[in-house]
């Protein structure tokens, strides 16, 4: 019969479709999990939820009433959008800051003069105690040299490395930016970078041994705030050393908070998984995979049972009746009882066996030469056939 192979092909098609769907669903789950955790993004990115990311700060500010918090995946906004915005640029290296191009500085200055607030938090220098990291983790790879502008002459600031240990206590410096003394008196600072302020337009907010580590200055209608330790804004610091008053001071009076990502290499060229998560198309993807599996199954096996050829005998196929009888005898009668069964069948169809036939059957029980004993039994049953050729063993 043909139902066996057809059923096997149908089962194989179903199993193959289920396997493909399971693999695709597993891949989607793990990619979605990686995007949710943000591990695929660089350190200090607001997409990361691990200790090295800044997602906690973004989500905390987003819960504050009156604040519009978004990620910035494009250049700094220009007028008139800049006036109500504060942009956090978290995690650029000291080298990238010192090697800023004229175009980058002009974009920043245009944003500041339009009334925007720019918070630059540099990656820690010489730190081996960044919360949640091991020594050397989070370092930016070496970049190619590019045209640099002297920040000391243009912005009146320079960066130097202190000879003391990277971890120190930064003390608040009273000034016009803190008229009510509400900022914390001291902050744990995990960077050996210090600021050298070459202009009286700068105001020191925090310093270590009289060396500024947090400072601000006015640019037209806007304000630039510079920090030498970006780890103060990471998820680890939000959990263990959160300074809410300092964070509120960094935001200022702005109503739009933007977290820049382009300096970390994160641009607006989003992948398929990001779009699937944004528009919640996971169910649609699984349905498409199911349809694809059904299509593959349909092409592998027909949905209808195979039809018999015209004129064919139903159920015909396989071995003939003689082979079936041989298999039945092999399974049901042991070799030692084979001649007894033949003698009983002779008695049922052809009459009483002769004494010679019974003697031969008794002797066959004590021998292993069953074919020879069967041949002798046949000669005794048919004396007239002795002259003919004996049955072959």
Q: How are strands sequenced across the largest beta sheet? A: 1-11-2-3-10-9-8-5-6
Q: In terms of quaternary structure, what is this?
A: single chain
How does CATH name the architecture of the largest domain?
3-Layer(aba) Sandwich
Mean residue pLDDT: 76
* Helix/sheet category: alpha/beta
Instruction: Please give the number of β-strands.
Output: 11
**Low-pLDDT regions:** 127-142
The backbone outline, from C-alpha atoms, is rod-shaped
For the report, how would you describe the main beta sheet?
Answer: 9 strands, mixed
Beta-strand percentage range: 15-25%
List keywords for this structure.
13 helices, 11 strands, nine-stranded mixed sheet, 393 residues, two-stranded antiparallel sheet, alpha/beta, Rossmann fold, single chain, rod-shaped
Protein model, in words:
The protein has helices at 3-37, 55-62, 94-98, 102-113, 151-154, 235-240, 244-251, 272-278, 282-300, 321-332, 338-350, 355-364, 370-381; strands at 68-72, 85-90, 117-121, 157-161, 167-172, 186-190, 193-197, 202-208, 211-219, 222-227, 256-260. The protein has 393 residues and is of the alpha/beta class. A hairpin with a 2-residue loop joins strand 8 and strand 9 (211-219). It has 13 helices and 11 strands. Helix 1 (3-37) runs antiparallel to helix 9 (282-300) and helix 12 (355-364) packs antiparallel against helix 13. The chain folds into 2 domains: 42-265, Rossmann fold (3-Layer(aba) Sandwich), CATH 3.40.50; 321-385, no CATH class. The strands form 2 sheets. Strands 1-11-2-3-10-9-8-5-6 form a 9-stranded mixed β-sheet, with helices on both faces.
């Amino acid at each position: 019969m043909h139902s066996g192979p057809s059923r096997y092909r149908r089962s194989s098609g179903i199993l193959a479709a289920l396997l493909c769907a399971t693999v695709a669903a597993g891949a989607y789950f793990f990619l979605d999990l990686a995007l949710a955790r943000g591990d695929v993004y660089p350190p200090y990115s607001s997409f990361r939820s691990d200790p090295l990311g800044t997602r906690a700060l973004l989500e905390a500010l987003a819960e504050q009433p009156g604040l519009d918090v978004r990620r910035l995946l494009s250049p700094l906004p220009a007028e008139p959008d800049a006036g109500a915005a504060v942009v956090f640029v978290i995690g650029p290296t000291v080298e990238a800051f010192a090697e800023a191009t004229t175009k980058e500085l002009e974009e920043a200055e245009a944003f500041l003069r339009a009334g925007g607030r720019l918070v630059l938090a540099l990656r820690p220098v010489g730190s081996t105690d960044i919360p949640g990291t091991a020594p050397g983790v989070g370092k930016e790879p070496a970049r190619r040299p590019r045209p640099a502008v002297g920040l000391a002459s243009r912005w009146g600031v320079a960066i130097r490395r202190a000879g003391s240990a990277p971890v120190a206590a930064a003390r608040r410096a009273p000034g016009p930016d803190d008229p009510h003394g509400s900022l914390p008196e001291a902050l744990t600072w995990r960077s050996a970078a210090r600021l050298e302020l070459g202009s009286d337009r700068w105001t020191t907010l925090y310093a270590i041994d009289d060396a500024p580590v947090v400072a601000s200055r006015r640019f037209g209608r806007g304000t630039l705030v510079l920090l030498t330790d970006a780890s103060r804004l990471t998820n680890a610091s939000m959990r263990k050393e959160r300074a809410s008053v300092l964070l509120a001071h960094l935001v200022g009076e702005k109503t739009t908070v933007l977290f820049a990502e382009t300096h970390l290499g994160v641009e607006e060229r989003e992948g398929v998984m990001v779009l699937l998560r944004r528009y919640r198309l996971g169910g649609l993807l699984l349905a498409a995979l199911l349809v694809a599996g059904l299509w593959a199954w349909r092409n592998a096996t027909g949905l209808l049972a195979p039809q018999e050829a015209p004129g064919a005998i139903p159920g015909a196929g396989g071995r003939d009746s003689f082979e079936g009888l041989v298999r039945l005898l092999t399974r049901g009668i042991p070799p030692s009882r084979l001649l007894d069964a033949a003698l009983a069948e002779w008695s049922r169809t052809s009459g009483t066996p002769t004494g010679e036939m019974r003697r031969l059957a008794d002797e066959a029980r004590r021998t292993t030469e069953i074919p020879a004993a069967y041949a002798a039994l046949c000669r005794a049953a048919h004396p007239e056939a002795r002259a003919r050729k004996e049955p072959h063993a």
